């Protein structure tokens, strides 16, 4: 079980094979290879057609790959199956449903906030709220959320999160501060910042 590193409470399926494919899909997503994750999530769904979280993850992959119709379809299917999932999975599915399917970012926040209170060590709610806040033009809030996400998951590959953070920082007119006071974590991204 440790090999696939997905706690059972984080992936509701009765199929061990589906869980294995799902876990491998998340490993690919974690490596920012959504194209490689797609067939793994599809396999998980083929093994368990009621595997809501696999539909949700597949929807995220398609969104990242620019395939909006498939992202919407899979996220909607996850939402339809959400009654069969754990509390954390339900938060994940509902928040992404409002982000992806309806585009109601305020309603998504109404799901992310209790998710964050219930699971304070989960980096997904602040990361997602940071992205949503930036889209709504609430850059100060976005910075706080993005930094909180980085605090909660400091050991991962944060290039997409740093890109969002840097974009938000620049949008707030703080470009000079970013370039003159980089933290240790920002140093690898200094060259990217200089091109802004």
Structural key phrases:
196 residues, mainly alpha, Serine Threonine Protein Phosphatase 5, Tetratricopeptide repeat, 69% helix
Describe this structure in words.
The chain is globular. The protein folds into two domains: 1-103, Serine Threonine Protein Phosphatase 5, Tetratricopeptide repeat; 131-196. Helix 7 (124-135) packs parallel to helix 9 (159-171) and helix 8 packs antiparallel against helix 9 (159-171). By secondary structure, the chain is an all-alpha fold. The longest helix has 16 residues, at 87-102. The chain is built from eleven helices and no strands. It is 69% helix and 0% strand.
CATH homologous superfamily classification of the largest domain: Tetratricopeptide repeat domain
**Main sheet overview:** none
Overall SS class: mainly alpha
Instruction: Based on Cα principal axes, name the global outline.
Output: globular
Topology, number of strands: 0
Total domain units: 2
The tally of helices reads 11
Query: Low-confidence stretches at least 5 residues in length (pLDDT < 50)?
Result: 1-9, 175-196
Q: What is the name of the CATH class of the largest domain? A: Mainly Alpha
Which architecture of the largest domain does the CATH hierarchy give at level 2?
Alpha Horseshoe
Named CATH topology of the largest domain = Serine Threonine Protein Phosphatase 5, Tetratricopeptide repeat
Please state the CA-atom Rg, rounded to the nearest Å: 17 Å
Helical coverage, percent range = 55-70%
Strand content: under 5%
The chain-level mean pLDDT equals 81
Write the element-wise H/E pattern from the N-terminal end onward. Answer: HHHHHHHHHHH
- How far apart lie the N and C ends? 44 Å
């Amino acid at each position: 079980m440790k090999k696939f590193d997905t706690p059972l409470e984080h992936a509701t399926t009765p199929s061990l094979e589906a869980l294995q494919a799902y876990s491998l899909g998340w490993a690919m997503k974690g490596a920012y290879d959504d194209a490689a994750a797609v067939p793994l999530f599809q396999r998980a769904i083929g093994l368990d057609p009621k595997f809501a979280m696999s539909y949700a993850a597949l929807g995220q992959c398609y969104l990242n790959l620019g395939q909006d119709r498939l992202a919407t379809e899979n996220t909607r299917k996850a939402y339809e199956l959400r009654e069969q999932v754990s509390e954390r999975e339900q938060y994940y599915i509902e928040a992404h449903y409002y982000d992806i399917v309806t585009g109601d970012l305020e309603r998504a926040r109404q799901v992310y906030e209790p998710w964050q209170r219930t699971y304070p060590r989960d980096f997904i709610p602040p990361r997602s709220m940071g992205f949503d806040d930036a889209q709504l033009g609430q850059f100060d809030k976005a910075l706080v959320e993005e930094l909180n996400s980085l605090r909660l998951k400091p050991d991962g590959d944060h290039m997409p999160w740093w890109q969002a953070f840097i974009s938000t920082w620049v949008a707030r007119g703080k470009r000079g501060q970013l370039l003159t006071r980089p933290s240790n974590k920002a140093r690898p991204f200094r060259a990217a910042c200089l091109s802004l």
